[in-house]
């Protein structure tokens, strides 16, 4: 897999005339799972980021366990765009990971067709809160295991069982730094969401 192009090399800033459908998707997950990295890797435009440096004010508030190298955090959202084909564009909204930003999660979920939830095997239990929030808001989702360097590797069946996912919930693995895997995850999510819509109609 190749690495993502640098933001400066992305010159497509407009939506082509061929686009007939746009979809709003969330990129959700707990604190530090790689949401900002994911949006940055896949967006065809320079992503909008609202990152701030983590300060002493986070001590005792944000759970930094297992994240020794994390120095910034998203305080509002990440925003990116990706064209799936000439007629379909996805607008990606990365959510902040901490519970204290839950009102923002709820606002960002308005109008979203679904969500891709990133999880980290080093802190798998942190996904429960995010999954519960999406379920209570009736936002359908797929789950992607972001495979961090040095992190434990588990079979996807084990992850599915640990997260108590429904059998129909898509579950894949990826490296959030690699565009190809991120794109595959979004396509998997979109196929799942469109199948749900067809079944409902």
TrEMBL record:
One MF annotation (Gene Ontology) recorded for this entry: hydrolase activity
Entry keyword annotation includes Nucleotide-binding: yes
Domain of life: Bacteria
InterPro entries in alphabetical order: Gliding_Motility_GTPase (IPR052705), Gpn (IPR004130), P-loop_NTPase (IPR027417)
Transmembrane portions of the chain: none
Keywords: ATP-binding, GTP-binding, Hydrolase, Nucleotide-binding
Keyword Hydrolase set for record: yes
Pfam families per the UniProt record, alphabetical: ATP_bind_1
Family (UniProt): Belongs to the GPN-loop GTPase family.
PANTHER family named in the record: ATP/GTP-BINDING PROTEIN-RELATED, GLIDING MOTILITY PROTEIN MGLA
Record protein name field: ATP-binding protein
Organism: Nocardia stercoris
Lineage, top ranks: Bacteria, Bacillati, Actinomycetota, Actinomycetes, Mycobacteriales
């Amino acid at each position: 897999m190749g690495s993502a192009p640098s933001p400066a090399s992305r010159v497509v800033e407009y939506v082509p005339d061929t686009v007939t459908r746009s979809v709003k998707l969330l990129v959700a997950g707990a604190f530090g799972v790689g949401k900002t990295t994911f949006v940055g890797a896949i967006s065809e435009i320079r992503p909008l980021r609202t990152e701030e440096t983590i300060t002493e004010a986070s001590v005792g508030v944000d759970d930094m366990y297992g994240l020794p190298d994390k120095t910034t955090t998203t305080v509002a959202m990440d925003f990116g765009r990706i064209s799936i084909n000439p007629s379909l564009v996805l607008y990606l909204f990365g959510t902040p990971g901490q519970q204290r930003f839950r009102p923002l999660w709820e606002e960002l979920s308005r109008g979203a067709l679904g969500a891709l939830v990133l999880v980290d095997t080093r802190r798998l239990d942190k996904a429960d809160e995010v999954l519960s929030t999406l379920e209570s808001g009736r936002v359908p989702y797929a789950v992607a295991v972001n495979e961090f360097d040095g992190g434990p590797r588990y079979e996807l069946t084990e992850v599915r069982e640990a997260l108590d996912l429904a059998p129909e919930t898509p579950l894949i693995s990826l490296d959030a730094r690699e565009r190809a895997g991120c794109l595959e995850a979004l396509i998997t999510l979109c196929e799942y969401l469109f199948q749900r819509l067809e079944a409902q109609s």
